[in-house]
Design goal:
mainly alpha, Arc Repressor Mutant, subunit A, two-stranded antiparallel sheet, 7% strand
């Protein structure tokens, strides 16, 4: 059967397979893709104060979802949350030594999965894909009342 698929179906297939591959690669570290993405974000912003709210905004996820992810990362010893010294309502999120040790392996596994998935595209096609995906993400943000 060779039916035409909608873009939404393609996004779902890509998302499911990408998530499966990355989860399989990260399983040995005891991490899920979502947890690894948060750790990578924290690694990239290690010289900044990052709050739980910042993570919610960046990943466009609800407080309960981020709280659950951070709880599991904390239990596994990858992060600690501390109250901001100027405002106790703000919880800062910090990487532990354990997270710093495994961050290179996490990054390598995440990049490997992405590289494998995109290996069929030329550099020009990847650039075009990135521009189109960014345009879609910005449209989603605008529809939610956000800014580009």
């Amino acid at each position: 059967m060779n039916e035409k698929k909608s873009e939404g179906v393609f996004f779902k297939i890509i998302s499911n397979n990408f998530e499966y591959r990355k989860n399989k690669d990260l399983e040995r570290l005891g991490l899920t893709t979502s947890q690894a993405q948060i750790l990578l974000f924290l690694t990239l912003n290690k010289n900044k104060i990052v709050s739980q709210r910042d993570i919610e905004k960046i990943f466009d996820l609800s407080n309960p979802t981020i709280n659950g992810l951070l709880n599991r990362l904390e239990v596994k010893g990858f992060i600690v949350r501390v109250k901001n010294e100027n405002d106790a309502r703000i919880k800062e999120v910090h990487l532990t030594d354990k997270a710093i040790i495994v961050q290179k392996e996490i990054s390598k596994k995440m990049k490997s999965a992405e590289k494998e998935m995109l290996s069929v595209l030329s550099r020009e096609e990847r650039d075009t894909l990135n521009k189109l995906l960014e345009k879609i993400v910005n449209n989603i943000k605008m529809q939610k009342g956000g800014k580009e």
